[in-house]
Amino acid sequence: FWFGGGGDDDDAPQSVGGTNGGAPDSPNAKARSNAARHETLVRAAASVDLRDVAAAGAVTVHGRDFIGRRVFSVDAVSLESWLLKGRNRGEAERAVLYHVAKCVAPAAADAKGCAFVYFHCGGEKAEAPSLEFTQRLVDAALGNGSLEGNLKVFYVVHPTAWLQAGMLWGSVTGALSQNVFWKATAVHRLGDLNGFIGEDQMATPKHVKEYDESLGRQ
To answer: Residue 218's Cα: distance from chain center in Å?
Structure first.
């Protein structure tokens, strides 16, 4: 979910609007600014060793959904676990954004569009990254806003009531892009997701499958 605004880093995604309270930028100027910010992020990523981030498997490009759109996913629990493993939090988050900009954004630019799967839960004690960082991650995946129109569907798997309420509130206040909000679909069971994305087209994390099975026993 793409929220306006971003971190304090110069190379982190930032919201694009008017200057000093003035009128918003024109659509063309905004698009150029978004593309330029994305290019800055990609150039910075070229000088960083991102093999450790890729090996974590928390951000993955998969196959295609049932109508041919490219699929990419974020495993929130695995991502947060990787970020917590004795790393400098700021540097680790920046590395993730570099990886996403370099590897995911090209898939998101697919001519047929893209489908984003966000695996939110994975057990009672599992934690997900902050909404602020998740916003920056999705922003990077969508070319810092330049590919937002290419996102065709956004599957939020195993959402909590808190997450759904936060997304709704964000759409009402304008903090959450309406274009992304209306593409969001809550998926409470993996069987429902498999109706749109074949199991052979996407590797679902083991802990997500186990969590889904536990829901079936409740």
So the answer is: 29
- Comparing CA positions, the residue from 180, 209, 182 lying closest to residue 194 is 209
Q: Tell which residue, 59, 61, 63, has the closest CA to residue 98.
A: 59
What is the mean predicted confidence (pLDDT) over 81-91?
Answer: 86
Q: In whole angstroms, give the CA distance from residue 171 to residue 19.
A: 23
Distance CA 46, CA 61 (A): 19
158 burial (CB, 10 Å; 0-12 / 13-18 / 19+) is: buried
Taking the model in full, what pTM does it have? 0.78
Q: What mean pLDDT comes out for the span 64-68?
A: 95
pLDDT digits (tens, 9 = 90+) for 115-145: 999 998 866 556 777 777 777 787 788 877 7
CB 108 within 8 A of CB 197: no
Q: Looking at this protein, which amino acid is placed at residue 114? A: C
Q: Hey, which residues does 151 pair with through a beta bridge?
A: 114
